[in-house]
Structures are given as structure tokens and as C-alpha cells.
Specification:
The chain has 451 residues and is mainly β. Helices cover 6% and strands 47% of the residues. It contains three helices and 30 strands. Strands 21, 22, 25, 26, 27, 28, 29 and 30 form an eight-stranded antiparallel beta sheet that branches. The relative contact order is 0.11.
Length: 451
């Protein structure tokens, strides 16, 4: 267990990469976040889950391991039932395009050999994105694995540990659980094709004949994966990974007057494209805590699609039920950064070019791989006084244009890690801060302080 105080993005201690966040307020009044756990550069997720909780969106607890993949009895059992996750006989436009690109440059014999060999290997016991809920004092954790299996484990505590796993009669990824006002529970899952069904009273089984397929689709709703269900008033919100902009970096949503549809596409809530040059996917949820609604999502780091970190932004539910799209921020659930406050390089919420966030042994993390023409974005900074200077802790050399709300505030020269001047000029107010790198020679950014 680890305690952490923070209101900025990324939320958690730097060593905890918890993506796919499903947030729920549990009966004890705390907010709990259930997600997967990245700990490898070349693999999504890992063999364990950590639950995160908070009472105030500032003081966080990363709980001890709640479930391990090695505890699931059916993984790699040749006699276990097989439930396919994707209907390859009916490929979506995304899959057709992916297969086309693969075949254009493919050595068919080599591909056959590769897939044949992979088929003989045991699947690692990876735990993919989960969800959880409480009913009658019991906490149910719904999970999926690298062999397309799905299951549920139980606990008497929201943070687990979760025990007695039971397999569900379906295959795929990204389970979601929802209990309606009348006490009926619904289960959702799927990649490319979304499925939904009412659970039985025991919360660990359902009638496969009652499954509704294609609740939301790629063609009509830009659905990719990452199902999540909430209810606001009398409207059901199906939140999911959205592929409208060409890759699954957005969280979108569709609404219905029934938990099993039909659903009408409404739009995008947030897009993490640009958080890293390799940004590829997103997965999260919305939840109300206190009087405020939030969106929970992730950003990748280290110049790869993995090492995804939990981030949170306040959102607005308009009177007509729509959710306006918001931008990623550095401030997260906190206020804009103030004069004299340290802004960490790794708190950049966006970038342009090759720049990305990576590990640094002295500073925890840093902005690195900076090339001429790159940009790093920090949202937002605010002051009632004019901005008159900036101090940048850095290594290497370079020239940096400081841009605030689209206006150039000054130019900073760094030589061998030494800043030559600190003067900038910008009027009071709230600003988006952009560091535009016009020259770079092994330049790296650790900290920023506005004066």
C-alpha cells in the first residue's frame, strides 16, 4: 500500500502505471478506481491489479495487489471452454484496413509459421481492463485475460483481495458492470463489437440466449473497445474507446433510454492523441464524486504505447444531457499552476514532434527526445499579476520560445544545462503554456517555474 498526495496529472506515483480506469463511488463514500497495470514496454497490462482510492481527490491510496493472473484456474487449461473474442468472419472497416496493410507487405509462409508457433505457446496470465461493483455488501470484480476469457471474483472489501474466480460464458475484453435503480445488473464487453446482457441475481452468471450483440458498433458509433456504463437522470451513457479520428485515442459516448439500447451516438469527451508520439489507445469512464463529474482516462509515456498513467479531468453534463469535449490538462483536478509553483516536465499534457516523457533517475521523469520544431504543452497557468520570468531546469543546450495563449512571451537560451536569462512578458490571466523548441542539442527539461 502506498499513500500519495496530488491533484495534478498524472495522478499517481510515477512507478504506478494504471490505465483503463473505471471509477466508482462505493458505499463507504470513497472513490475507487479499478484498472489494469502496465509494467512492460512491449506488453499491454500485466499479471496483476492494484485498486486506487481517495476520499477527496487529493489524498490517494494505491492498495496492495487485489488479484493476480496466476490465481485464475482456467488460464491455459486445454479442456476449458473457448469463447472467441472477435468475429473475424465479419471484419469491421478498421479490421479490414489493418488486414489489408498486413497482407500488402506480408510473407505468407513466414506468417503461417509464426502464427503456428504462437498457437503452441502458453498464454501469459495477463489481466486486461477490469470493472467492479458492490451489491448487498459483496464486491464483484469483473476481469478479462490474454486468452479472451472473462470472469468474476469476489471480496468483502472494495480494494480486495478478490477470490474465488468464476468463469463467465463469453469471450473478449474490457468488461463493464452496471446496476440500475431497480437492482437489475447488466454486463457489457467486447472489442469492435459490443455485447450486453442482464446478469442473474447471483451476479456471476447470465443466460447466453439473452445476449444482445452490436449494442454499439464501429460503423454507427465509432466503437472500438472499452465499454463503460453510467446513468444520469433517466438516460444511460455508454462510454467507450472511440475511433472516429482514425485511431482509438478518444473516449466517446452514446445514449439510450434503456440499458440495452438502442444507443444514439453523441460525440467525443476527450482525446489523448498527442500525449506521446506513440499514443494509440484510450479507455476510461465518467463518475460523479461530490457535486462534480469527472472523466478518468490514461496517457501513454516513454515513447511507446504502454506505460499508461491515470489522468482525470472535470467535465460538464449540460442541461440537454450532452458532454462537451474537453482538452487534456496538466492541472488535472487541481487549480491552474501559480507563480512560483514548480511545474514538472512530466506534467506536460501534450506534445508535438518527437518529444516524450521518460524516466530520469535524479528527477523521476523528464521531457526528452527534443528536436528542433518540437513543442510541449502545459494547461493551465494563472496569475493576477503580469508574468515576468521563467526558470527552466534542464540538461543539454537549446533555444526555447515561451508561448502563452498563442502569444510569444519570450525566448530562453539554455547552454550545457545553464539558463542564460529568465525574462518573459505576458499579461495576467489564465494561459496555456507552450515551450516551442527552435534549437536543441540533447536538450531535456526537468522543471519549470513561472515568475
Amino acid at each position: 500500500m502506498k499513500a500519495h498526495k496530488n491533484r495534478r496529472n498524472p495522478i499517481l506515483p510515477l512507478e504506478y502505471h494504471i490505465p483503463d480506469g473505471e471509477a466508482h463511488v462505493m458505499p463507504d463514500g470513497r472513490l475507487y478506481i479499478y484498472g489494469s497495470f502496465d509494467n512492460q514496454e512491449d506488453t499491454y497490462c500485466s499479471d496483476r491489479y492494484h485498486v486506487v482510492s481517495t476520499a477527496d481527490m487529493e489524498h490517494w491510496t494505491v492498495h496492495d495487489i487485489s488479484l493476480k493472473g496466476q490465481e485464475i484456474p482456467w488460464i491455459n487449461d486445454p479442456d476449458a471452454p473457448k469463447y472467441p473474442g472477435i468475429d473475424w468472419k465479419n471484419p469491421t472497416p478498421f479490421i479490414r484496413e489493418m488486414l489489408k496493410k498486413m497482407l500488402e507487405n506480408a510473407d505468407m509462409e513466414a506468417m503461417k509459421e509464426k502464427f503456428g508457433e504462437q498457437g503452441k505457446l502458453e498464454k501469459p496470465p495477463l489481466l486486461f481492463a477490469p470493472d467492479a461493483i458492490c451489491k448487498d455488501g459483496t464486491y464483484y470484480l469483473y476481469f478479462c485475460m490474454s486468452d479472451d476469457s472473462e470472469g468474476v471474483a469476489v471480496s468483502n472489501k472494495p480494494e480486495g483481495p478478490f477470490k474465488n474466480p468464476v468463469r463467465l460464458p463469453c469471450g473478449g475484453i474490457d468488461p463493464a458492470i452496471f446496476i440500475d435503480d431497480d437492482g437489475k445488473a447488466y454486463y457489457y464487453w467486447g472489442q469492435l463489437f459490443a455485447h450486453g446482457v442482464q446478469l442473474n441475481e447471483d451476479m456471476i452468471s447470465f443466460d447466453t440466449e439473452q445476449v444482445i450483440d452490436n449494442l454499439v458498433t464501429e460503423e454507427e458509433h465509432y466503437f472500438h473497445e472499452g465499454s463503460s456504463m453510467r446513468k444520469i437522470g433517466d438516460t444511460y451513457y455508454y462510454v467507450y474507446t472511440n475511433i472516429e479520428r482514425g485511431k482509438p485515442t478518444s473516449l466517446g459516448y452514446a445514449t439510450s433510454k434503456s440499458p440495452l439500447g438502442p444507443f444514439i451516438y453523441r460525440g467525443i469527451i476527450i482525446d489523448n492523441d498527442g500525449c506521446d508520439p506513440a499514443s494509440w489507445n484510450n479507455h476510461g469512464s465518467i463518475e460523479k464524486f461530490g457535486d462534480q463529474w469527472y472523466v478518468f482516462y490514461h496517457r501513454c509515456s516513454r515513447g511507446c504505447e504502454r506505460y499508461r498513467r491515470l489522468c482525470i479531468e472535470p467535465i460538464t453534463i449540460e442541461a440537454d444531457g450532452t458532454i462537451p469535449e474537453i482538452k487534456m490538462t496538466s492541472q488535472g483536478v487541481g487549480d491552474p499552476f501559480k507563480l512560483g509553483e514548480v511545474i514538472k516536465g512530466y506534467q506536460a499534457c501534450g506534445g508535438k514532434g518527437s518529444v516524450y516523457i521518460d524516466v530520469d533517475h535524479a528527477h523521476g521523469e523528464k521531457l526528452t527526445s527534443i528536436k528542433k520544431g518540437d513543442e510541449a504543452v502545459f494547461r493551465y497557468v494563472r496569475s493576477d499579476e503580469a508574468f515576468s520570468g521563467i526558470r527552466i531546469s534542464a540538461a543539454g543546450s537549446g533555444v526555447i520560445e515561451v508561448v502563452m495563449s498563442g502569444k510569444k512571451a519570450g525566448t530562453i537560451v539554455i547552454e550545457a544545462g545553464i539558463q542564460k536569462e529568465e525574462n518573459i512578458k505576458m499579461e495576467p490571466g489564465e494561459h496555456e503554456l507552450v515551450l516551442r523548441f527552435t534549437e536543441s542539442n540533447d536538450l531535456e527539461i526537468f522543471d519549470i517555474v513561472l515568475l
